[in-house]
């Protein structure tokens, strides 16, 4: 509800400095919280204002400023980030990170939380508190309403309004009760001096509540709760849950010790005990199932820093080898490599990727000499399970990779059968130079710019000149050719035949290569419109390598084009399990929801990509599609303009949709200007006929629209893949010409 703009309230839509207030999202005893937009940095923020009735009370103003001062000292993934502290019309306010997701209080209300998830949440709160305690800051109000969990399972500690700095005795000793009684420590309810161990007690209360749905200390009135906290022992956990391991009971008991000397003395000890329990086999379905691992890109320790391609290739080869085994869950390259160059704790990476172990390493190359180090690390406690250093020559690289992969499997206590060991030790070429050229080709292919794709082609071709039987190099070459259509507007008629030829050569050499079957599937589907054979190929690829995230990703797109949306959603979920941080796969998830016309889900998926990389291509482009589908034309136009700004130049697809929006808004003159521009450009350079066709349709010119659509059909443009489901054709589905073309594409 919109508030009146009075001295005692803030109005929705008002601009406070660079912040525009969008909506009220919460109130408390001390502050009002609003969702806002930072108009300078174009990001959402949370704005917390001291309530109007407290602005004249110095004690409350001091507490409010103390929250800002305490929280601003901290920079940690599990703690809300403070951007600015300021004052508006006498009201102090804090601008902070807007944490999306669900409050822990709501999760507890929803029902039983698995023990493993309780541990994961508690561990993350431990990490945040460890950072606060390191700076001498005690939170003093840990409770479910002050913890938020986003869609990726990341916890954020909120509200440092009652935080105390231990070195300031005036703030740590009080005879008034500050906080939420049910979560207070005995010393806190007695008004005594508190330190970091009080937060540990509160966290114990919180964990108990997550496990049982009940508070450990109860009473019908405040005095009754205080008496319970000081004097009573909570009911044992297994009275309410049979799946809680006895070790967890011991951990909770120690956290809830009334005697400060018997309680955990620091948050690190609590975190260590929880980590050991979390790594215990059989705790939940993920730990009782196959072991899980992420292989990080190896660090280049060479003096010239010119071995990045080799380091990336080393890690990628080990990923591919481990992924060939059915009894290990291996995170795909994209997600593992997303942490490249970042200084992030291994345990934090493991939690983000939801794996139990991490392999990291380094390469130092000098001439033909190599020094390779590798370490296998247990995520739960950060301890090394294994480490090794290899001082060899370049000729030994295949043997080193084999040794690392086999050792990792053994250390993960996974049974390695003869056929599996053969998979691990399989080499697609014995020629070291060809192998290095292949690694360079993949390195540049992963960059996805037109210039880098051309470099990738050069390296793959040179590898094949040296070893004409190198199947993976042919598969890589095929991948580049169909990528050129998307990333450099190469005509499909030029690129897809080359992709087909390379894929067929790869399959002739090695019919068990999953990457080659995916490449073949894409050509059969995206160019030949041979849908049945395309599905056979992709299913074959997934059977050969169930851990190949790209196969599941493409299959989800294929199923969307066939209007099999429920299957498509399930398939993209599998891809995300294998490669959770892949920007491209998260983008595909948004596209699947968009095609299914589940627009809110699509927005959620696309915005998750923007949180990871605000400049990732085609995200604003597809968000524009979604808002267009919702008939929110101004929002749609804004998204397409953002896409144009990111790309740095007008792109034909973006300009087409800007024209479509103008036509929807009644600005037909502007729409026709764009149409005339595209038609004129098509005489000088490649412009997809599909773009011109759909703009004609938007302007109501069906005859010219179908004339250009026929040309798009002849050119086999990739935009026609959504012909059966795209909203651009909703207005012409009853036209016989649409039905004829749908049948010619095999989509009827």
Descriptive keywords:
alpha+beta; 32 helices; 6-stranded mixed beta sheet; 52% helix; Phosphorylase Kinase, domain 1; 748 residues; Transferase(Phosphotransferase), domain 1; globular; disordered N terminus; 17 strands; Rossmann fold
Structure description:
A hairpin with a 4-residue loop joins β3 (31-38) and β4 (43-50). The strands form 4 sheets. Strands 1-2-3-4-6-5 form a 6-stranded antiparallel sheet, with helices on one face. Helices cover 52% and strands 12% of the residues. The protein has 32 helices and 17 strands. The protein is an alpha+beta fold. Among the domains are: 15-97, Phosphorylase Kinase, domain 1; 102-285, Transferase(Phosphotransferase) domain 1 (Transferase(Phosphotransferase), domain 1); 292-389, Rossmann fold (3-Layer(aba) Sandwich); 650-748, Serine Threonine Protein Phosphatase 5, Tetratricopeptide repeat, CATH 1.25.40. α3 packs antiparallel against α9 (267-278), α22 (549-561) runs parallel beside α24 (583-595) and α24 (583-595) runs parallel beside α26 (619-629).
Brief digest:
With 748 residues, the protein is α+β, with helices and mostly antiparallel strands. The chain has 32 helices and 17 strands.
List low-confidence stretches: 1-8, 167-176
| β-strand amount | 5-15%
Estimate the mean pLDDT confidence: 86
Radius of gyration: 29 Å
Largest sheet: 6 strands, antiparallel
CATH architecture of the domain at 102-285: Orthogonal Bundle
The share of residues in helices is 40-55%
Q: How many β-strand runs? A: 17
* Tally of individual helices: 32
Distance between the termini: 48 Å
Helix-strand category: alpha+beta
CATH topology of the domain at 102-285: Transferase(Phosphotransferase), domain 1
C-alpha geometry:
globular
- What is the CATH class designation of the domain at 102-285? Mainly Alpha
The CATH homologous superfamily of the domain at 102-285 is named Transferase(Phosphotransferase) domain 1
Strand order of the largest sheet: 1-2-3-4-6-5
């Amino acid at each position: 509800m919109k508030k009146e703009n009075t001295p005692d309230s803030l109005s929705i839509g008002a601009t406070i400095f660079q912040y525009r207030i969008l909506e009220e999202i919460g109130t408390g005893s001390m502050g009002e919280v609003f969702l806002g937009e930072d108009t300078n940095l174009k990001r959402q923020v949370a704005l917390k204002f001291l309530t109007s009735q407290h602005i004249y009370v110095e004690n409350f103003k001091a507490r409010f400023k103390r929250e800002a001062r305490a929280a601003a000292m901290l920079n940690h993934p599990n703690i809300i980030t403070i951007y600015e502290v300021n004052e508006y019309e006498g009201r102090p306010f804090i601008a902070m990170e807007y944490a999306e997701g669900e409050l822990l209080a709501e999760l507890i209300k929803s029902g039983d939380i698995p023990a493993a998830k309780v541990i994961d949440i508690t561990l993350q709160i431990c990490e945040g508190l460890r950072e606060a305690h390191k700076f001498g800051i005690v939170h003093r109000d840990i409770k479910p309403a002050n913890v938020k969990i986003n869609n990726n399972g990341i916890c954020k500690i909120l509200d440092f309004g009652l935080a105390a700095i231990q070195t300031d005795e005036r703030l740590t000793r009080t005879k008034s009760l500050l906080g939420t009684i049910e979560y207070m420590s005995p010393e806190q309810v007695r008004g005594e001096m508190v330190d970091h161990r009080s937060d540990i007690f509160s966290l114990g209360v919180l964990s108990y509540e997550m496990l049982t749905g009940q508070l450990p200390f109860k009473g019908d009135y405040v005095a009754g709760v205080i008496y319970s906290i000081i004097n009573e022992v909570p009911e044992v956990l297994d009275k309410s849950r049979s799946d809680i391991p006895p070790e967890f009971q011991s951990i909770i008991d120690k956290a809830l010790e009334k005697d400060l000397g018997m309680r955990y003395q620091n948050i690190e000890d609590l975190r260590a005990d929880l980590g050991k329990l979390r790594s215990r086999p059989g705790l939940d379905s993920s730990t009782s199932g196959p072991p899980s691992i992420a292989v990080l890109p190896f660090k280049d320790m060479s003096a010239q820093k010119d071995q990045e391609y080799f380091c990336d290739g080393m890690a990628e080869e080990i990923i591919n080898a481990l992924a060939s085994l059915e009894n290990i869950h291996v995170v795909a390259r994209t997600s593992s490599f997303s942490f490249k160059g970042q200084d992030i704790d291994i345990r934090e990476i493991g939690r983000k990727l939801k794996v139990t172990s991490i392999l990291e390493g380094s390469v130092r190359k000098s001439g033909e000499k190599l020094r390779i180090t590798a370490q296998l690390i247990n995520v739960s406690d950060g301890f090394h399970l294994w480490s090794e250093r290899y001082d060899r020559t370049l000729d030994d690289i295949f043997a080193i990779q084999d040794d690392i992969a086999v050792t990792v499997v053994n250390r993960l206590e996974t049974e390695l059968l003869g056929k599996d060991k053969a998979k691990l030790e399989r080499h697609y070429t014995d020629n070291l130079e060809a192998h290095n050229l292949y690694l360079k080709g993949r390195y540049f292919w992963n960059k996805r710019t037109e210039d880098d794709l051309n470099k990738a082609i050069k390296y793959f071709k040179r590898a094949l000149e040296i070893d004409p039987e190198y199947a993976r190099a042919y598969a890589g070459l095929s991948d580049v050719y169909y990528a050129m259509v998307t990333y450099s507007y190469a005509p499909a008629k030029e690129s897809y035949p080359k992709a087909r030829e390379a894929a067929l050569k790869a399959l002739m050499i090695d019919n068990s290569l999953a990457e080659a079957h995916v490449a073949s599937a894409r050509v059969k589907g995206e160019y030949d419109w041979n849908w049945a054979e395309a599905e056979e190929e992709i299913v074959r690829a997934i059977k050969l390598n169930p851990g190949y995230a790209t196969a599941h990703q493409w299959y989800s797109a294929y199923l969307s084009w066939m209007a099999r949306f429920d299957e498509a959603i399930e398939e993209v979920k599998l891809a995300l399990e294998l490669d959770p941080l892949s920007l491209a796969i998260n983008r595909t998830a948004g596209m699947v929801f968009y095609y299914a016309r589940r627009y809110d889900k699509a927005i959620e998926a696309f915005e998750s990509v923007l949180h990871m990389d605000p400049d990732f291509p085609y995200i604003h482009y597809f968000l524009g599609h979604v808002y267009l589908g919702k008939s929110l034309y101004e929002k749609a136009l804004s998204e397409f303009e953002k896409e144009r700004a990111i790309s740095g130049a007008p792109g034909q697809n973006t300009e087409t949709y800007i024209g479509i929006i103008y036509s929807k808004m009644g600005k037909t003159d502007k729409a026709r200007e764009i149409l005339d521009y595209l038609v004129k450009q098509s005489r000088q350079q490649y412009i997809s006929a599909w773009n011109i066709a759909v703009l004609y349709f938007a302007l109501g010119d069906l005859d010219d629209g179908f004339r250009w659509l026929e040309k798009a059909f002849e050119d086999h443009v990739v935009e026609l893949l959504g012909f059966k489901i795209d909203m651009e054709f909703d207005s012409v589905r009853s036209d016989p010409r649409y039905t004829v073309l749908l049948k010619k594409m095999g989509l009827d």
